[in-house]
Amino acid sequence: MRLRNLPRRTAALVAASALAAAAACSSPTATQAGSSAAASPSRTTYGTQTPLAGNFEASGLTATTLSFKAETGTVYADEAGVTYIEPRTDASADLTVRRALWDGTEAWSTAVAVPDDVADMHLRLSADPGIGVVSVWFAGPDETSEDEILLRNTEAMANQVTWLELETGRAASEDLAAAAFEYAGVSVRSNENFAGAIVMEDDSTTSGVLYVNADLSLTGSSWGELLSAEGDFQLSDVAQWNGTPLFTLTDKQVDTNNIVQLGPAELLIADSDSVRFIPGPTHLGLKHNEDLWLVDETGAVVEVDTSACELGENHQYPTISDTALYAGLARVTLDDHSLECLADLAPTADAKIAGEFSDGSLLLTSTLYGADVQGTWLVPADRSEAVKLDNTFNLTEVHSDYIVQITDGAEVTFVDVYDYRDLTLPQE
């Protein structure tokens, strides 16, 4: 894929593969809601779907704090709560986007208009956790010939996009066609990690990038304004963090010259293009083979010393919270970059840290196909022996003090949320 308007360099960028708002509803603060939930052992299930994640009675999880159905692939969970699009019964009716806190309290709901001519397209929900914004858009299908190569990990998108502020539900919508036209664009592409769009001059040429900031304002840049490297590059991956485009460039002539950029700033150079982005609310994590880096809100890059813990190739996609990054059995504290390795406590090398609870306990899971040992374990805050739970939690996320099960069905996504404080450990 070619990159347009790049003086001083050959600009062949080969891409290998790729909303009208209603008023927000008021709710108790997260602190008030959390205190109420902790005080009562009986919690009201919110939503439309009873739990289907499994039979967890033996583990003490007899009820959910939150349980619902969502449009397939439109669930975004963070440390404060979960945002999702309610399943549609009428394809032409306004979408309903909901935001719930982890105790089951609805924070807000917003109506988003459905643009014209999206009958054959699929709903998508993207996020930039650095600025606390999600975007609602429609994707696919691609209509290209077999010899045309499109941007990796992206999809064609409808021009109409709506951005919503996670904290308040405030929304802004824009048709990207006019903005793309300023960069000689005739179409746009995006992915679930990008709350903006790549501008396409044609099916094989990118000419610019559009992205949203914390004020829900759309910003654009040509590639010539962003890239300073000289050479013949391909665009390997693209995302957005903290209101800035994030991407990897691979030098087609020099295999070791793979540049990761945040906006115009070069973050690092890697010896392959398999750099994983892990965007979080306060830090951006980067993983490449056994190496980890953390990027703070100022753009400063710190390499994490991972020599004390083998990260392993089984866990290509680390996770991040507002306090730590988790890669396999390694836990990296964000504020001081210290590393803790759980390899000696984990019952199997195939386990990974799913997340951390407020008391310092960690949840480990091993669900890889072909793993020697499968299961779920709780590692106490004092790092005494890991305790195996009676049930295996598949497809699990941990946010705040909640265990989140997200299961994609044939037509909808099911979400079931359990309060960790209800967990009963097996008795010896």
Topology:
Elements: E1 2-3, H1 30-39, E2 66-71, E3 75-77, E4 81-85, E5 95-101, E6 106-112, E7 122-128, E8 133-139, E9 155-157, E10 160-165, E11 171-175, H2 176-181, E12 187-190, E13 197-202, E14 205-212, E15 218-222, H3 223-226, E16 233-241, E17 244-251, E18 258-262, E19 265-270, E20 276-279, E21 284-288, E22 291-295, E23 301-304, E24 319-320, E25 324-327, E26 330-333, E27 339-341, E28 352-356, E29 362-366, E30 375-379, E31 387-388, E32 396-399, E33 402-408, E34 412-419
Parallel strand pairs: 1-14
Antiparallel strand pairs: 2-34, 3-4, 4-5, 5-6, 7-8, 8-10, 9-12, 10-11, 12-13, 13-14, 14-15, 16-17, 17-18, 18-19, 20-21, 21-22, 22-23, 24-25, 25-26, 26-27, 28-29, 29-30, 30-31, 32-33, 33-34
List keywords for this structure.
four-stranded antiparallel sheet, six-stranded mixed sheet, 5% helix, 41% strand, 428 residues, mainly beta, globular
Summarize the structure.
The chain contains three helices and 34 strands. It is mainly beta and 428 residues long. The strands form eight sheets. Strands 1, 9, 12, 13, 14 and 15 form a six-stranded mixed sheet that branches.
Describe the protein:
- The protein is mainly beta and 428 residues long.
- It contains three helices and 34 strands.
- The chain has helices at 30-39, 176-181, 223-226; strands at residues 2-3, 66-71, 75-77, 81-85, 95-101, 106-112, 122-128, 133-139, 155-157, 160-165, 171-175, 187-190, 197-202, 205-212, 218-222, 233-241, 244-251, 258-262, 265-270, 276-279, 284-288, 291-295, 301-304, 319-320, 324-327, 330-333, 339-341, 352-356, 362-366, 375-379, 387-388, 396-399, 402-408, 412-419.
- Strands 1, 9, 12, 13, 14 and 15 form a six-stranded mixed beta sheet that branches. Strands 2-34-33-32 form a four-stranded antiparallel beta sheet, with no helix packed on it.
- A hairpin with a 5-residue loop joins β26 and β27.
- The longest helix has 10 residues, at 30-39.
- The protein starts with a strand and ends in a 9-residue tail after the last strand.
